[in-house]
Batch of 3 targets.
Target 1
Amino acid sequence: MPRELGSALEALREVRGRRPAPGCPAAELAGWWEEVAVASEGLAGVLVFPQDRRRYRAEAAFARGEAARVRGAS
């Protein structure tokens, strides 16, 4: 596995593993969603197959939408 791909996968796993606990402040949850978006975009940038790149770009867009939703609800 190329180093860049391994690093991007690990970054996304690490961010997902730090999901805030239920009831955390909205700013913390929104920040986490933004981190998921950044990590997903990073992974999309190193994937080989177009369908995989689309999937993780879509995940990034979803995460950014969740961050906006959380911010709007607070």
Target 2
Amino acid sequence: MEESLSRVPANRPVDGLERISATDRTATVTCTVDARGEFVDLGIGADWWYSVGPSGIASAILDALQFAQDKAMLARMTLRRRGRQVPAAPRDDPFSAGDSASGPSRDAWAAWAAAEAKVERGYALMTIADRVAELRDSGQPRSISGPSGLFRLHLVGFAITGSEVDVQSLSELDTDRLAEDARAALRQASREQDPAYWFVGEGARR
């Protein structure tokens, strides 16, 4: 990456930072993250049944994710050392939702209603923030499963602590189903780390 940065002018973006990939130790699973270490995609090799087997595929997925996130961390460190900006995640501003600009045509009652609505939204946001903080700090284990139930992530708060697969339901022909299940679970775990998910996304309706 040092060589790539030396060829790119300081005011130009560096290519490849939105897709940083790594494999597990057996090169069975390839995981892709962005420069912030957030999950993007994964692939499972067709020979996974023989290279790691159903008992080892769950840990191989997390190994590939960890290695990809380590590479992303090194990329961010290199960018900072070179005085470059680390790509920022797109974020919705939950505090701007529902706001409306005041104008000369608005009467006093409309202004009062808008102010009241703003206060009510502030209380709602504080309630959501308390709920998210409680989930983050609870220390209680929880899990996120893919739609087919083949892959399950284990978390404490928002931190991934492990994973498992439904060994009894898997066969060597389930490569695509397993990969899709793992993608869904990892994407959900990544979304839950984004404050916008809780304030203006699906999490606000949970």
Target 3
Amino acid sequence: MWIVAAALAVSACGAQTPQEQQAAQLREVADAQADAIEAEAGNIVAGMQAEAEQLRQQAGQDGGYEAQRLQVRAEAQEREAKLVKKQAEAKARAIRDAGKARASALLAS
């Protein structure tokens, strides 16, 4: 008997109002958008890091000023990749926060 009561209690807790469903959907959409931004940035960063590695390898083969120039370009590429990642994280965080805020506003109304 208590199993039936527990099952009913769990199912009652799981039921969401239309507002709660819409709020959850707002958060999910924001999360999906943020994930897409992070994934795209990850691809860009990976390409930039690969290019920096190629420059480093080429610098190792060359000598003198050309090697130094290539090393500087590789370092700049890596620094730019870090900025791209940081910017994407900030955008993703802002989108998630906005989704949470819209969801909270919807539930508060």
